Amino acid sequence: MHIAEGMLPKAWAFGWMAVCVPFVVSGFFSIKKKVDLNPKAKVLLAMCGAFAFVLSALKIPSVTGSCSHPTGVGLGAILFGPTATTILGLIVLLFQALLLAHGGLTTLGANVFSMAIVGPFVSWGVYTLLKKAKTKPSVAVFFAAALGDLLTYVTTSVQLGVVHGNFGEYLAIFAVTQIPLAIAEGLLTVVVFNVLEKYSAVELQELSVL
């Protein structure tokens, strides 16, 4: 993730930005609706943003033009849904590009699509399915966060592979670092969720998480 500046041709860079627009617009309405219904959710929303910022800033060099790191978006997707988390991811990636030189501005659309759209939708979908199957919450959270992380990197591999070729090579190299990182992110997300379940159970019920 964090595809670097200049790694994508202009057509692809602006194309990914265009694809992200409907999700971003939907995300603003989603956040407004949730905050209007539950003003106290602002604190949890801010915490999810901070969680994603810190985790996704811990990068490990992986392949030329990108790096591996946790994404941190699974928690936000579980609590607030995928489109709301798209806004959090956009803010996180924009600040990281400007302040930390993690990723680029021209590649922001591609990075948002992989980390702030694909990742959250996968995490939300996995959690929703496992919740309906009456799976233990901690198990559902683990798989949601871990798979959301992994699919983010599959998407990044596709984005780089389509432009530069060797999709399989990108995927294989990412796998070395990303599989253990995804497992670690899943476990950490479970720890945070368990704390929230203990001290913010009312808020989680109002958000229909529990």
TrEMBL record:
<keyword id="KW-0406">Ion transport</keyword>
<keyword id="KW-0171">Cobalt transport</keyword>
<comment type="similarity">
    <text>Belongs to the CbiM family.</text>
</comment>
<dbReference type="GO" id="GO:0015087">
    <property type="term" value="F:cobalt ion transmembrane transporter activity"/>
</dbReference>
<keyword id="KW-0812">Transmembrane</keyword>
<keyword id="KW-0472">Membrane</keyword>
<dbReference type="GO" id="GO:0009236">
    <property type="term" value="P:cobalamin biosynthetic process"/>
</dbReference>
<dbReference type="InterPro" id="IPR002751">
    <property type="entry name" value="CbiM/NikMN"/>
</dbReference>
<feature type="transmembrane region" description="Helical">
    <location>
        <begin position="12"/>
        <end position="31"/>
    </location>
</feature>
<keyword id="KW-1003">Cell membrane</keyword>
<keyword id="KW-0169">Cobalamin biosynthesis</keyword>
<comment type="subunit">
    <text>Forms an energy-coupling factor (ECF) transporter complex composed of an ATP-binding protein (A component, CbiO), a transmembrane protein (T component, CbiQ) and 2 possible substrate-capture proteins (S components, CbiM and CbiN) of unknown stoichimetry.</text>
</comment>
<keyword id="KW-1133">Transmembrane helix</keyword>
<feature type="transmembrane region" description="Helical">
    <location>
        <begin position="105"/>
        <end position="127"/>
    </location>
</feature>
<feature type="transmembrane region" description="Helical">
    <location>
        <begin position="43"/>
        <end position="61"/>
    </location>
</feature>
<dbReference type="Pfam" id="PF01891">
    <property type="entry name" value="CbiM"/>
</dbReference>
<keyword id="KW-0732">Signal</keyword>
<dbReference type="GO" id="GO:0043190">
    <property type="term" value="C:ATP-binding cassette (ABC) transporter complex"/>
</dbReference>
<keyword id="KW-0813">Transport</keyword>
<protein>
    <recommendedName>
        <fullName>Cobalt transport protein CbiM</fullName>
    </recommendedName>
</protein>
<dbReference type="InterPro" id="IPR018024">
    <property type="entry name" value="CbiM"/>
</dbReference>
<comment type="function">
    <text>Part of the energy-coupling factor (ECF) transporter complex CbiMNOQ involved in cobalt import.</text>
</comment>
<keyword id="KW-0170">Cobalt</keyword>
<comment type="pathway">
    <text>Cofactor biosynthesis; adenosylcobalamin biosynthesis.</text>
</comment>
<feature type="transmembrane region" description="Helical">
    <location>
        <begin position="170"/>
        <end position="196"/>
    </location>
</feature>
<feature type="transmembrane region" description="Helical">
    <location>
        <begin position="73"/>
        <end position="99"/>
    </location>
</feature>
<feature type="transmembrane region" description="Helical">
    <location>
        <begin position="139"/>
        <end position="158"/>
    </location>
</feature>
